Amino acid sequence: MHVRAPAIFLAARPHGETAVIGRFLTGEYGLLAGYVAGGRGRNLRPVVIPGNAVEVQLSAKSDSQLPFAKVELVQSRGPWLGEPLAAAAIAWVCALSATALPERQPYPSLYDALGGTLDAICHAPSARGWAGALVGFEVLLLRELGYGGAGQRPLGDLAQIIEVMDDLVEPLDHYLLADSRGDVMAARQRLRDLLGRMI
């Protein structure tokens, strides 16, 4: 396996003293995992932040081996992690994608939608500007994985968007996250509580 592609960094799990197992979403190859040597070191720690746009190079001698990953930062989401609402939104969409998507199955529309959602979170003046995009991403994810209907990005004020968000709790929990730990949905509940305070 030899892959070089633009990717969105979704999650990092510590491995050994300084390495991490990273999960990357690419448009062409889907969700990929790789061993990032020094991922918790001073140089790479700012790169392996969920939501960051990166250039990843993965190489392995066989398909059964975990690939080694070299990662270069393209765009950092780090500046927005100091804002509680933006940080909660970035954490949620990245955790959802890393948990729900099957490995090595390309979903180009989800890759593009996640990139657009992250851009909206980081550049909209307030949550009112990106909340609809975030819920639209959830709807698209359910549909692409075969669990949703023809739902669209919700339009309207924040109260209406939160209403749609509440309606999606059961399908997300039941279909996409049924076999995962509860901390993924806890990230969504935290985001929902923060958005609810804005109404």
Automatic annotation (TrEMBL):
The keyword Transmembrane does not apply. Pfam families: RecO_C (PF02565), RecO_N (PF11967). GO terms for cellular component: bacterial nucleoid. GO terms for biological process: DNA recombination; double-strand break repair. Residues 1-76 form the DNA replication/recombination mediator RecO N-terminal domain. Belongs to the RecO family. This is DNA repair protein RecO.
